[in-house]
């Protein structure tokens, strides 16, 4: 398929991640994917400040996750529920105080498509920056589907592409699937990982089972690149921290 920025259907845009960007948060991150920029700050774990939050944390799980999105986002309330479910499942509850709350505040300075996936990655990066232990790394991949009427074929075909730009998302009759890929080690062979779908959000064109499976296969393959990039970003953070400590020790 022909894309506006020249990428292949399975290519992601360039990624960038900056950690510890805010000093008044437990952890923070700026995640960039092409022209999309998402900022996330993590506050907590702390004791819930409202009685209803405490009741929710006590009745459901030992950690209550709250996500705040800017009101300008079209699917803000849906996305908040989606993000809470994804983040709650990846946080290792036993590493946090009982009945505590973790709040994630998200800002979107620049929207050029695939914002929900970027929100997942920015939020998880902020959690890691806050040294909150995770059960797994949820990788979110957005796949867009566009009907392709080919006069040489009897039936309409579907074009697929990963990490769509805003221009691609706004194409007529286009549909979006954001899938969360969760990888875990195989019990029989720890050198191998098994991928499962942690969550899925859809909008636009109604997806068939065939559409979902095609997007899932593409998402699984692309998720390995995101995990490799995450490891690189964390390594750079630890190296900078070690250099700062060394410089401080040398000046004393």
Oligomer: single chain
Derived from helix and strand composition plus strand pairing, the structural class reads: alpha+beta
Shape: globular
How many helices?
5
Overall pLDDT metric: 84
Structural summary, described in words:
The chain is α+β, with helices and mostly antiparallel strands and 252 residues long. The protein is 34% helix and 31% strand. The chain has five helices and nine strands; from the N terminus they run βββαβαβαββαββα. It has helices at residues 51-60, 76-90, 115-129, 166-169, 209-250, and strands at residues 15-19, 27-33, 36-46, 63-68, 100-110, 139-148, 157-162, 175-185, 193-204. A five-stranded mixed beta sheet has the order 1-2-3-5-4. Strands 7-6-8-9 form a four-stranded antiparallel beta sheet, sandwiched between helices. The longest helix has 42 residues, at 209-250. The chain starts with 14 loop residues before the first strand and ends with a helix. Mean pLDDT is 84; it is low at 186-191 and 244-252.
Can you describe this structure in just a few lines?
With 252 residues, the protein is α+β, with helices and mostly antiparallel strands. It has five helices and nine strands; from the N terminus they run E-E-E-H-E-H-E-H-E-E-H-E-E-H. It has helices at residues 51-60, 76-90, 115-129, 166-169, 209-250, and strands at residues 15-19, 27-33, 36-46, 63-68, 100-110, 139-148, 157-162, 175-185, 193-204.
